Amino acid sequence: MTGARLAVDIGGTFTDVAVEENGRRWTGKVLTTPQAPEEGVLAGVRRVLDEAGLAPEDIALVIHGTTLATNAIIERKGARTALLTTEGFRDVLAMGNEARYDQYDLNIELPQPLVPRRWRLPVPERLDNEGRVLRPLDEEAVRRQVEFLRAEGIESLAIGFLHAFVNPAHERRAAEIVAEMWPGLPVSLSSEVSPEMREWERFSTTVANAYVQPLMARYLRKLESGLREAGLACPLFLMLSGGGLTTLETAARFPIRLVESGPAGGAIFSAHVAKERGFGRVLSFDMGGTTAKICLIDDYAPQTARHFEVARVGRFKKGSGLPLRIPVIEMVEIGAGGGSLAGVDALGRIQVGPESAGADPGPACYGRGGERPAVTDANLLLGRYDPERFAGGTLRLHPEKARAALAAHVGGRLGLSPEMAALGVVEMVDENMANAARVHAIESGKGFDDRVLIAFGGGGPVHATRVAEKIGIRRILVPSGAGVGSAIGFLRAPVAYEVVRSLYQRFASFDVAAVNALLADMAAEAEAVVAAGSFGAPTRESRLAYMRYVGQGHEIAVPLPARALTAAEVKEIRAAYDAEYARCYDRPVPGSDVEVLSFAVTVSTIPEPVEPAAEVFDAPPPRPARRLAVRDTATGEVSDWPVYDRDAFTPGAAIAGPAIVAEAETSTLVGRGWRCRMDGLGYLELTQEASR
Amino acid sequence: MTDALKAIQRQIQWNRLIAVVEEQAQTMIRTAFSTTVREAGDLSAGIFDLRGRMLAQAVTGTPGHVNSMMESVNHFLAKFPAETMRPGDHYITNDPWLGTGHLHDLTVVTPAFRNGRIVGLFANTAHVIDVGGLGMGPEGRSVFEEGLYIPIVKCFDQGRPNETFFDFLRAGSRTPVELEGDVYSLCACNDAGAKRLVEMMDEFAMDSLDELAAYIFESSLRATVEEIAKLPRGTYAAEIRSDGYEAPVTLKAAMTIREDRIEVDFAGTSGLSNRGINVPPAYCRAYSCFGIKCVVAPEIPNNWASLSPFHMRIPEGCILNAPRPYPVSVRHVVGQLLPDLMMGCLHQAVPERVNAEGSSALWNPPLRGGAQVSGPAAEVPDFEIITFNSGGTGARPTKDGLDATAFPSGVRTMPVEATENVAPVVFWRKELRPDSAGAGRTRGGCGQVMEIGAKNDAEFAVNAIFDRVAHPPKGRDGGRDGAPGWVGLDDPNGTPLRTKGFQIVPRGRHLVLKLPGGGGMGDPRQRDPALVRRDVADGLVSPEVARTVYGVEV
């Protein structure tokens, strides 16, 4: 594709815009306009086009990602939604897995279903686990329920029947009846939105899709016409939570697949940076104002998953949100950002986050009325920020307010000076992020050996060296453009679509023909979606089987060839599973058969090739712009650290830690024992010279 | 290094230990075979010093294992002193009196070595699906009938599997492959913990855990005692009734709150049963401690010191102090009522912090079918499954109870679609049970109704372990009781089944379970009428009950 490409990422506070043409890039930030998000988008687009000197008709493609669907669920501002379900199972959404996400808290709140019980309506019908009809669909009952829902003023309908992922016939027939009686009512089927085993997750996903569908369809149409009126007649693509792009039409049908598109863009940004540098094993570390997001990237592909929780009520606690079973880029998100608030618990332990000072009042040092200490206050008190130059000098910081907040809420209670309290806060937040990364690696069956940490977001480069030390990583990359990483990531994403379906198989009785038929069908579905947006660009297809030992509960993904399987190949796939399992957990398990739970087929355009970055010769080091008295968190000692402006580096220039490299959007902390060199792309590469 | 920095580093190290045991638990969930572990989360994991004192325990897991696993490590050390342990050794037992209270729980202990020197111990416990014998159920008359009995032995010796042990293990189970796989999983999870511990000790140049242990114990004890000191002193008595097996069981407790500790005396509690509902003392301590701790000090992490101010006196000969070889397979049926009993005492001291009684004991139907039930006439393949299900929890002082949610147990249930894929059964109904929640200013959680058949309506069996049928969960402060449970068939007469014991569901019939609702709290007439109307609109409270009990016309 030629011509300029434009990406827009709507976040909670800012709408980011990035435009690229012939390797040149312009970026901009405007405030998000929550009441009419398309207005913020259009304002941002106009501003960046002006800056770039481009006309609307120069833009060949617009790529868009948004948190609107997520926000609608969190704020409960979606459509009046109903669910038609199998008689006897109207409370699947309410009962979930019958568990509490916190063992000791007697006062926990469980997430409320998006559909209240009065609109979760049963109809007689039942399939067995192989899709055979145990009880035929009662069509009269469907009609009666639809009449009731019409009287109730329902705006969107989900249909979820047991085992519909094996045989969708009853769901489809019920949808036909609805369409006859009430044309135009949006209907989401569980067999289309999330055709996988596990009724709670499938129904929850289907209902969430139905809940945001009218809103998202309206918004997307408004955005499209707004862009047209502004002269952008080019195609509009949407970023999916799984890391691919899709057409407006598909997005309007399955808007639930858009939920985590912003963070997905950040991970793709990281993956692209990894590819530019040829780093095959990466840990992406994006630390912002409220949360830190951590993602594993192997062979330039962010790790993906099929499970996600949205709208957690228990402050980031696993199990406290609504489950969604959709393709997502897998990330762990914890409540650790510059605004995370610190305090001391009943045991005299320093606690940081997940509560956040937000943008208003912000950390105490912003001087806007915040009285409790945040991570930014602690960083300031350690001497890591120049109070006059924070955020490019746009925001003057008040160290005395940070000191007072740390003394009142942490130091005083522990008998520590405000400076040592600041050290404790920063060490604790670094430890929390390191622990989250470790548990995430365990859950993914992966390690950190030889990984490169790619740090971005406002806080990532500040905390990267210490987090890396804690998890045993010895190389860090801080790319440029880190402030609008997600939008830049959108520009790198392929047009792609993933189809996942369940088909239970055991290797002892593997039905090659049935599996081949299913995979061919899935491939055709994915190709059709991608063809609508690829404009004939070459595509590639990848297939995965999700497998486990019979009796285990967690599957491992094993790649399959993208063509019909032969009977002889089945054995090889089994062997590949054993090898992958042993790699993750030390030893394979003797004597167990292996089962396949589901298959995934992804069709994707082939990303443009990336030129490997050229090696650059060493260049003279820049001169320090100034000096700051910084307290080292590992030793507690204060010494004079040189501060360099990032702009003063030329490719090949290197300095030794301890030092700080400052830029408008962030500061890169180069810890003691680390060396920092600018590479040929203008990225900062930090390497640990010696363990301390 | 300055003292201030040292103090901060100790905090970091404590935080790290808690993360290490969480990794240990997650590794088990990732690799376990038994649905009870990987789906239901019936497990526990922790790290211990060389004196067998628990330093940290994973937050993932279930309370029944808390104290019991903690006590267990001392039994391992008594038989295999720390100085005899070698790298790569793993020790195992399922002895109910040396482990966590029934043969279905395996406990594995693994030493951690740094530079050739033993520095700590990792332990974990998991509930496996089958250990032979009569299977999960109350029918045994001694522990010998309840399954394979594993004394404390080495399952891995310096990294090599003890093949004799694994031979016995496989031969003694209906599910040998899964059971062997689970033992591998338990060992892998301790190894994962040990590896992380050594990394931490390297990072902070620690030669031993002693200094850290002293800090953890000192802070935890101090914080726990501070919480206890806030409670009004006195002795508070309560009792609770369980349906029992052959006769109803009374559990009695007198709780004395002193300045720095809480003592519970179970005098007056019913005697032992002939069947497997007896509770070994470690399990009694575990659930009693849990019940007290969630009210008194929920935020303080579990370790040897934070649990040490809670003292239990359990008279000999009572059902909460079962001696070997009494049957104990389903000790949870009685044991899981203990938090309600503890809250009955604490309600007199701190009424604003305590819940009404809930369904509490899990309603897990162990189902069996095929030739082991019907012999040669079997119409379905052999199967043996259990799902973990719950009624409603008790109303809370300012919030309703939770509908169909496990408490005090920390387990999860499995999806119906997944269960129907591992066994030839069909769940015909599984939804909330209207009018089951105990009425009150805040209401109890709703119970649920389950209706289960075999495929093609074939004959099958249930090994019933249900409670709260004759003795429903009590309300508090004027709140009404939750609905009692019910077990029976779907025939026109609604034939009831016994609440405990092995029974046949005949061909053509379904098993029907109506799980209890939680008790209510406060006068129902003080409930916000809008909430009553919401429940009526949702079909969870009938207009009749709204009018007569809540005084709300709908």
UniProtKB/TrEMBL annotation, chain A:
Domain of life: Bacteria
Gene Ontology CC annotation, any one: cytosol
Domain Hydantoinase/oxoprolinase N-terminal: 5-181
Molecular function terms, GO-annotated: 5-oxoprolinase (ATP-hydrolyzing) activity
Any Pfam family matching the protein: Hydant_A_N
Domain Hydantoinase A/oxoprolinase: 202-498
One Gene Ontology biological process: glutathione metabolic process
InterPro entries from the UniProt entry: ACX-like_C, ATPase_NBD, Hydant_A_N, Hydantoinase_A, Oxoprolinase-like
Residue ranges of every copy of the Acetophenone carboxylase-like C-terminal domain listed in the record: 544-686
UniProt name for this protein: Methylhydantoinase
Native species: Caldovatus sediminis
UniProtKB/TrEMBL annotation, chain B:
Pfam families attached to this UniProt entry: Hydantoinase_B
UniProt GO BP: glutathione metabolic process
Region Disordered, annotated ranges: 471-500
UniProt cross-references to InterPro entries, sorted A to Z: Hydantoinase_B, Oxoprolinase-like
A GO term from the CC aspect: cytosol
Biased composition (Basic and acidic residues): 471-480
Occurrences of domain Hydantoinase B/oxoprolinase (ranges): 7-524
Single annotated GO MF: 5-oxoprolinase (ATP-hydrolyzing) activity
Protein name per Swiss-Prot or TrEMBL: N-methylhydantoinase B
Species whose genome carries this gene: Caldovatus sediminis
